[in-house]
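User: Sequence in, structure out. Go.
Assistant: Echoing your sequence, followed by the structure tokens.
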Amino acid sequence: MKWLGILAGIILIVMAIMAVLLISEQETQQAPQQPEQQASQRTIILQNFAFSPSQMFIKAGDTVTWTNSDSAPHTVTSNSGDELDSPSLSPGETYSHTFTTAGTYMYHCEFHPRMTASITVQ
């Protein structure tokens, strides 16, 4: 009879553990999914009459900010189309653009045509 009481206690403990595990598994399955990776902020520096980096790979939705850290004014101007069309950026000024469409965007400085770069949006 004593063993019957011990066996019943063990069965109750096992059932309690199984119930806790089942509830925990259900909560895990119902947990909200993580959102897709958020868009990021990227920076390009205009310095020494060059864009740095001169080539960048980003995802659609990312924002790129150009900062003029040079001694002369510069622009960020698309080679074709009008996707990128900054005003003249004096030293210390910035220009930002959010890319929404996949593709390769080649650009230059209107004042210094040898300043060229590209951004590939995936």
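User: And one key feature?
Assistant: Residues 2-30 form the longest helix (29 residues).
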